[in-house]
Amino acid sequence: MENPYIYRGPVRTPEMFFGRRHELNEIAAFLRGNQSVSLVGPRKIGKTSLLFHLMRPQVWPDLGLGLGKDGGILFAYLDCEVLGQGQHEEILAFFAAELAAALDTHNLEAEPALEQAIASPSRLSFENAIRKLNRRGLRVVLMLDEFERLSTNANLDINFFNALRSAAGRYQLAFVTASAMPLIQLTYSSRSKEILSSPFFNIFAQVFLGLMPEEEARQLIEEPAKAANGPFSSEMVSFIYSLAGGHPLALQIACFYAMATPDDPAEIERQTLNELAPHFQYYWHNLSPQEQSTMRQLSNAASRASSDTTLRGILRDLAQKCMLVAESGSYSYPSKAWASFVAQQAIPSSSLIQQGGLLTGTRLGTYEVLELLGRGGMAEVYKGRHPRLDRTVAIKILPPTLAAEADFRQRFEREARAVAALRHPNIVQVFDFGDVEGAYYMVMEYIEGVDLGQHMRDHGPLTLEEVRPIVRDVAAALDYAHSQGLIHRDIKPSNVMLRPQGEGGWHAILTDFGIAKMRASDTAATRTGMMMGTLNYMAPEQVRVSHQVDGRADVYSLGVMLYEMLVGELPFHGDNPGAIMLAHLQQPPPDPRALLPALPEGVALAILRAMAKEPEERWPTAGELCKAIESA
């Protein structure tokens, strides 16, 4: 029996979304009146899941919302993680690109003004696009998840936020922001008051998302189990609710283990507490010393609160953070799991690791760290050595920002084990992995050679004869990995190492399996909807982050890489990321023969099929693409 309780992040299927009727109705009422909304709630409380659910067409009739050829509300979702370092015009282009993608998703006619706003982003072109959409009867709602990242973007000034405020006042345009901190607190934290005192921050109605009421929590416990033909007993439902309370993540975890071991409550509790521990550590270490002291001495603090205004404020803040429940003027822990964790924090913790970069000449576990080989957005790679085995290795150090995620250790170990289990001559071998004082690392075989991207920068385009063996090796690696249930998600030249072989030949080795997926904070898919991959090579379904991604996304990326290897440039161009996103979604792939007339027709058609917009229209496997290239 399949276990339905798999979600540790955003819920991506409507049948697994439960409750939140009050919040959904409240937000919908505001949006019908073109009122912007600030959704506030602590980490992992379900803000992104609610935004995703609000965008599902099947829920619109009940909420008085709708969208069709005659108009309605056009939702566009943006994860502000990708906007945290963007410039003013670049972010407006992203807004326009997501709106264009939303039109495409709902099979609505494209809007030329959006394409102009992407190609030449500015305040005027963006507002013109909103005006044109409004004239079509479309009211625009931009959903800005992880809004803290945008509000603290050092590249933005007061003019940017004032422009958003002006557009919202003049057009049918509303914003829904999601953040752990209320906007009023964001306004006066770390940034210049001049910048964040923009009237933009005054146009929002606040909706707070907290713990689920007991009725909704019990529904989340009971309904998926019933649908899976394994209903919980009433005693088990009560046990799970007592253990997890109304926290949706804790409920998913407890239910998952209850489905796995339904007759062993002690084991359910042990497994649940073990998986929740890193999340709880994250919450705990983000509390002030006063808040930690109050949590450890709750009964004493609650009794003194009536005469201590400061203590009353601390208790209210802890309840808003979902770490306490307020009932009839008293406070209690929201679940047995959280109470058990707090009980273990009797002595103030001093174990919070101060993380920093590793330097050449240090040791990482049993490995000597030698010279730095390269640095990218995801990791640093060092040449290293295992002294006892006298083995030269490559050590990939993952950034501390990933380790700050409460559930990262479990995701890291799960993905690293899966990658280490791969045994294929065209996939880099992972020997070891672990963490030392907060530094997470993977130890891999050291490959003497150069990556394909650097090779093309040094030598230009490749001939078809040079390309065929490289594609053969990469395709073999992908077909094997896909057969083991792993999707790469980030096929690009820099992830293909070329080891010299024979007379001027190359042995291609695919690297970075599993690394992209480790960026996600939920086990089922992606981090709060964040795109995983590299935009220039990304399949349309990866751009539409809510869509399922399978091995055919890697086939698409391999097709893009093939085009670039032969032609010497990428198939899609744009002045900004939004334009490239839109090209992957809407523009037909260019025929490589336009720039390379001598290319055999069979090769050109094989590449074009690999880059088909719809996965079912592509080659079903990388091997099939390779055969087409070889036989042409």
Indicate the topology.
Elements: H1 21-32, E1 36-40, H2 47-54, H3 60-63, E2 67-68, E3 71-79, H4 88-105, H5 112-119, H6 123-135, E4 138-145, H7 147-151, H8 158-170, E5 173-179, H9 183-187, H10 193-196, E6 204-208, H11 214-227, H12 234-244, H13 248-260, H14 265-285, H15 289-296, H16 298-304, H17 309-320, E7 325-327, E8 330-332, H18 336-343, E9 363-364, E10 367-375, E11 380-386, E12 391-397, H19 400-403, H20 408-420, E13 430-436, E14 439-445, E15 450-451, H21 452-459, H22 464-483, E16 496-501, E17 505-510, H23 540-543, H24 551-567, H25 577-586, H26 601-610, H27 622-631
Parallel strand pairs: 1-5, 1-6, 3-4, 4-5
Antiparallel strand pairs: 2-3, 7-8, 9-10, 10-11, 11-12, 12-14, 13-14, 15-16, 16-17
Give the fraction of residues assigned to helices: 40-55%
Radius of gyration: 26 Å
State the CATH superfamily name of the largest domain.
Answer: P-loop containing nucleotide triphosphate hydrolases
Mean of the pLDDT scores?
86
Bulk shape:
globular
Q: Which blocks of ≥5 consecutive residues have pLDDT under 50?
A: 347-358, 518-531
Q: Ends: how far apart?
A: 46 Å
Task: Indicate the CATH architecture of the largest domain.
Answer: 3-Layer(aba) Sandwich
Describe the main β-sheet briefly.
Answer: 6 strands, mixed
Oligomer description: single chain
Number of helices: 27
Strand content: 15-25%
Structural class: alpha+beta
CATH structural fold name of the largest domain: Rossmann fold
Q: Would you state the CATH class of the largest domain?
A: Alpha Beta
Count of strand segments: 17
Total of domains: 5
